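Customer escalation, tier 2.

The customer says the design service returned an amino acid string that "doesn't look like it belongs to this structure." They asked us to rerun it and document both sides in this ticket. The original structure tokens are below, unchanged.
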């Protein structure tokens, strides 16, 4: 049994997220369909995470097991021929039997892209969130710096992120290694590197940081929101279309 690792990029606009569903198209579902077609056997593709509907990826990692003798170069060429244009396989490698895309991951880097502009060009509409009001970037960077370190991020956690009845574990505690603003094409990106992320966490951080940038919340408010562990005190969930999974760290 071989263990095959994939490095994947995708435009999530037309998909109901990563995780396989019965009716709606998903990234996992399409990958499993095309790999099974190549190997003539059912496969399960394990992803490094579960991106939501409309979220994009530049560096998703996944793995699957197969007895097929197709070489890695064959999988790379064959899958890119079979997959729709909004999913691309960037790299294929055979890895050790114990590699698991999710459980072996040490961290992820997400980027939330936005444009501070009165008009968004048509080709940007699916990949940037428009923030029409002028933003105070210095205040936003100060707010982001407060996220660095280990914190309970319950205030940025969407319902259904995890089973809250489970005793033990780390709960909503995550470690953020870096949080910054970076220029991204014609716009900007909030870039977070952490050891893990809760459901909608990056989008909820973005919405709250936008409030700080627009003067609706102060840095003191931001500190209090983080300490409160109360989702109701944080900002709105920013739209999915601005979010990109940039890289998975192993």
């Amino acid at each position: 049994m071989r263990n095959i690792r994939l490095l994947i990029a995708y435009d999530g606009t037309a998909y109901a997220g990563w995780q396989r569903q019965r009716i709606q198209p998903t990234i996992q579902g399409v990958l499993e369909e095309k790999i099974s077609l190549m190997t003539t056997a059912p496969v399960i593709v394990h992803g490094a995470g579960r991106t939501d509907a409309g979220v994009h990826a530049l560096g998703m990692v996944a793995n699957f097991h197969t007895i097929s003798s197709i070489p890695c170069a064959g999988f790379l060429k064959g899958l890119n021929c079979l997959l729709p244009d909004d999913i691309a396989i960037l790299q294929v490698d055979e890895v050790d039997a114990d590699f698991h895309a999710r459980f072996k991951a040490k961290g992820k880097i997400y980027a939330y892209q936005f444009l501070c502009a009165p008009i968004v060009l048509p080709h940007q509409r699916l990949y940037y969130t428009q923030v029409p009001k002028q933003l105070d970037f210095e205040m936003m960077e100060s707010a982001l710096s407060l996220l660095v370190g280990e914190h309970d991020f319950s205030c940025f956690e969407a319902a259904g992120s995890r089973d809250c009845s489970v005793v033990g574990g780390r709960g909503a505690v995550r470690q953020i290694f870096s949080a910054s603003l970076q220029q991204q094409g014609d716009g900007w990106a909030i870039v977070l590197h952490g050891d893990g992320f809760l459901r909608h966490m990056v989008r909820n951080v973005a919405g709250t940081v936008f409030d700080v940038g627009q003067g609706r919340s102060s840095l003191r408010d931001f500190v209090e929101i983080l300490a409160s562990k109360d989702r109701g005190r944080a900002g709105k969930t920013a739209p999915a279309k601005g979010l990109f999974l940039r890289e998975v760290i192993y």
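Tier 2 assessment: The sequence is consistent with the input. The longest strand covers residues 173-184. The CA atoms of residues 34 and 79 lie 7 Å apart. Sent an explanation to the customer and offered a walkthrough call.
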